[in-house]
Write a structure and sequence with these properties.
The complex is a heterodimer of chains A (about 110) and B (about 400). With about 110 residues, chain A is of the alpha+beta class. Chain A has a five-stranded mixed β-sheet with strand order 2-1-5-3-4. The longest helix of chain A has 7 residues. In chain B, about 25% of the residues lie in helices and about 30% in strands. In chain B, α5 links the parallel β10 and β11. Chain B has three domains: about 180 residues, 3-Layer(bba) Sandwich (FAD/NAD(P)-binding domain), CATH 3.50.50; about 120 residues, 3-Layer(bba) Sandwich (FAD/NAD(P)-binding domain), CATH 3.50.50; about 80 residues, FAD/NAD-linked reductase, C-terminal dimerisation domain (Enolase-like, domain 1), CATH 3.30.390. In chain B, α1 packs parallel to α8. Chain B is globular. The longest helix of chain B is centred in the last third of the chain and has 15 residues. Chain B has a five-stranded parallel β-sheet. Classes of the chains: A alpha+beta (about 110), B alpha/beta (about 400). The interface between A and B is medium-sized, with 19 and 25 residues. Chain B: InterPro entries: FAD-oxidoreductase/Apoptosis, FAD/NAD-bd_sf, FAD/NAD-binding_dom, FAD/NAD-linked_Rdtase_dimer_sf, Reductase_C. Chain B: It comes from Alkalicaulis satelles.
C-alpha cells in the first residue's frame, strides 16, 4: 500500500491509498481521480495517462522505458518529469508519491 | 420528470457514453443496461494478459463500483433487452420490464462469429468475446495439452501467444493466404506468421478447416485437404457478428451494422448507435466503416454524447489498433485497404520496423512493430491527408518528428 497524491491541473488534490502491484494509472481510476483517461487500459499504446512526477520522487519511480519514451515524445506539453502512469508500478517505496496531471491528455 | 437516456450494452462504448454524458453536464437519468453479469470491463486483455494469467479479473473493471453511485448511472447487469418500442419510446427486457427513454443509445457490440463448420457446436469448442467465454476457455486450457485455433486474426494470434506462455501445444489454421488477412498487409501478416512459428506454434495458412471432429466432444479438426489434427480444445477465432438484431427488429436502417451519421444518430433521430455495432460514413476513407476497436468505442461514444447534449459532432477518426503478442507491440494507424504503394522503414529482421501505406501519394495507414514514434506521427499525418516523402520516410536517420513540421 502506498499513499499517493494526485494534483489536478486546477490544483485540486486527491490523496488516496493504492495497493501494491497496481499502477499509478489504476490508482487514479479506482479512486475516481479525474484527468487520466487511460483509453488503452494500460497497454502503453495510447499516451492518455500522462502525469508529471514530483521532481523529488523521480529517482524512486525510475526512468521511462523506451516504448513509453517514444509514446510520450508525441504527447502534448511533455517535460523532463513526464511519465505514462500505466508504466509506474506501485510499491511500498512509493508511499508519499506526488504526481501532477496535465491540462489535457493526448 | 424526463425519462432520460437509456444505453443498451454495457461494454466499453456504453460505459464511455454514460461517462461522457455526465462530463458534458447531462443531469437527467442515465440507465446502462448490460446483458452480461459482470460490470463494464476491458475486453482487450481477455486474449492477452488475462488469458495468460498475468492479470487478475479485478483489474479488468473499467470503473470501481463507487463510480456508478457518484455519477448517478443506473447500471443494470445481467439484464437482456428483447425489444425496442420506438412508438412508445421504451425498451423491453427479458423479464418484461419496460424502461422509458428520451434518447436511446445502442451499443450492443456483437458476438463471436460461429462459422457453419460441422461439429462447431460440440462441447470443447470455444469462442472468445466475453469474460465468461474467456473464463471457460481458460479453464479448459488448464486441463489441456493441445489447442487448435481456427482463424489467424488478432484474437486467434493473441490466444496462440498466451497459450504458448502457458505451455500448451498450439496449432493455428487460417483459410486465407496470410495471417491477419482482413486487416494487415501481406508483409506484416507473413512476418507475424513467422514470429509465431519461431515460438513453436504450428501456424498454417491456406488451411481451411472442413470439420471439427469428435463424437461427444471435440477431439480435433479435419482440414480441407483431409489431414486430421488432434486437439483437446478448439477455439473458433473467426471474427464478430455485429449485434444488430434489436435495431433491425425495430426497423432501424442496418447493413452489416446499424447505420449512423457523424453524430452517431441512426435513422430514428432519438436513437444513436456506437462502437462495434455502428457503421458510419468516413470522409477520410471515402466509404462506410464499422470499426471493432477500443478507440472507436470511446470516441464514437463521445460523439453521441456531444450530439445529445447539443454539440454536433462530425465523427471521422483515424482508426487505430494495437496488439500484444509475445514481447512485441503492434500498433496500426489507419486502414490499408486501397493502398497502392508501401514504404518500409527499419529492418523486419531486427524485430522493429514500420510499414507506411499510400494511396495516390497520400498516407493512409501505418503498421508499426515496436516503433511507437512512427505510429504516433502517422496518426497525425493520416488525419492531415499528408504526402510525406517516401525516400525520407525510408531513411531511419530522419526523425519522425520532422515530418510533422
Amino acid at each position: 500500500m502506498a499513499k499517493i497524491t494526485y494534483i489536478e491541473a486546477s490544483g485540486t488534490e486527491h490523496v488516496v491509498d493504492v495497493e501494491t502491484g497496481l499502477t499509478v494509472m489504476e490508482g487514479a481510476i479506482r479512486n475516481l481521480v479525474p484527468g487520466i483517461d487511460a483509453d488503452c487500459g494500460g497497454a502503453c499504446a495510447c499516451a492518455t495517462c500522462h502525469v508529471y512526477v514530483d521532481p523529488d520522487w523521480m529517482a524512486r519511480t525510475g526512468g521511462r522505458e523506451s516504448m513509453e519514451d517514444s509514446m510520450l515524445d508525441f504527447a502534448s506539453d511533455v517535460r523532463d518529469n513526464s511519465r505514462l502512469s500505466c508504466q509506474i508500478k506501485v510499491n511500498e517505496a512509493l508511499d508519499g508519491l506526488v504526481v501532477r496531471l496535465p491540462e489535457q491528455q493526448g | 420528470m424526463s425519462a432520460g437516456i437509456v444505453i443498451i450494452g454495457a461494454g466499453q462504448a456504453g460505459l464511455s457514453a454514460a461517462e461522457a454524458l455526465r462530463r458534458r453536464g447531462h443531469a437527467g437519468p442515465v440507465t446502462l443496461v448490460g446483458e452480461e453479469d459482470a460490470p463494464p470491463y476491458q475486453r482487450p486483455p481477455l486474449s492477452k494478459a488475462y488469458l495468460s494469467g498475468e492479470l487478475p479479473a479485478d483489474r479488468l473493471w473499467l470503473k470501481p463500483p463507487a463510480f456508478y453511485e457518484t455519477a448517478k448511472i443506473d447500471l443494470k447487469t445481467g439484464v437482456r433487452v428483447t425489444a425496442i418500442d420506438r412508438a412508445k419510446k421504451r425498451v423491453i427486457t427479458a423479464e418484461g420490464e419496460a424502461i422509458a427513454y428520451d434518447q436511446l443509445i445502442v451499443s450492443t457490440g456483437g458476438a463471436a462469429r460461429r462459422p457453419p463448420i460441422p461439429g462447431a457446436d460440440l462441447p470443447g469448442v470455444h469462442v472468445l468475446r466475453t469474460l465468461a467465454e474467456a473464463d471457460a476457455l481458460s479453464g479448459a486450457l488448464g486441463q489441456a495439452r493441445r489447442l487448435v485455433i481456427i482463424g489467424a486474426g488478432y484474437i486467434g494470434l493473441e490466444v496462440a501467444a498466451s497459450a504458448r506462455k502457458r505451455g500448451l501445444d498450439v496449432a493455428v489454421f487460417e483459410a486465407a493466404d496470410q495471417a491477419m488477412a482482413r486487416t494487415a498487409s501481406p508483409l506484416l501478416g507473413g512476418w507475424f506468421g513467422a514470429l509465431h512459428r519461431g515460438y513453436g506454434v504450428d501456424l498454417q495458412v491456406r488451411a481451411g478447416v472442413a470439420a471439427i471432429t469428435g463424437a461427444e466432444r471435440a477431439d480435433g479438426v479435419r482440414l480441407a485437404d483431409g489431414e486430421r489434427v488432434e486437439a483437446d480444445v478448439v477455439l473458433l477465432a473467426t471474427g464478430l457478428t455485429p449485434g444488430v438484431s434489436l435495431a433491425e427488429a425495430a426497423g432501424l436502417n442496418c447493413a452489416d451494422g446499424v447505420l449512423v451519421d457523424g453524430d452517431a444518430r441512426t435513422s430514428d433521430p432519438d436513437i444513436f448507435a456506437i462502437g462495434d455495432v455502428a457503421r458510419f460514413d468516413s470522409a477520410l476513407y471515402g466509404r462506410s466503416l464499422r470499426l471493432e476497436s477500443v478507440q472507436n468505442a470511446i470516441e464514437q461514444a463521445k460523439a453521441a454524447a456531444a450530439a445529445i447534449t447539443g454539440a454536433p459532432a462530425s465523427y471521422d477518426p483515424v482508426p487505430w489498433f494495437w496488439s500484444d503478442q509475445y514481447d512485441l507491440k503492434l500498433q496500426i494507424a489507419g486502414l490499408i485497404e486501397g493502398a497502392d504503394q508501401m514504404v518500409r522503414r527499419g529492418d523486419p529482421e531486427e524485430g522493429h520496423f514500420a510499414l507506411f501505406h499510400f494511396k495516390d501519394g497520400v498516407l493512409i495507414a501505418c503498421e508499426a512493430v515496436n516503433r511507437a514514434p512512427e505510429f504516433m506521427a502517422a496518426q497525425r499525418l493520416i488525419a492531415a491527408r499528408a504526402r510525406p516523402d517516401p525516400d525520407r520516410l525510408r531513411d531511419v536517420t530522419v526523425a519522425m518528428r520532422e515530418f510533422l513540421s
